[in-house]
Amino acid sequence: MVIVNISEAKTNLSKLVNLVHHGERVVIAKNNLPLVELVKHLPEGKRTLGLLEGKIDIPDDLIGEDAEINEMFYGPDEAQR
Question: Which contacts of 18-21 are long-range, i.e. CB under 8 A and separated by 24 or more positions?
């Protein structure tokens, strides 16, 4: 295990990251008191697509226009005047 103070960690960050990548345990300290540990990132796994399939109902006209909403934005239709 390697313990380094913050100032030394700032100076040697790439070396410390390389140590962690190769399995070494690195702890960063402040005034010689351990604060944090550098750890190797582990992927969480692949995303599962289609989790909500069959659980929600999406209407066929989801992106269709609504006359009432269009009127609120654009005013009454010319045909209705």
Answer: none
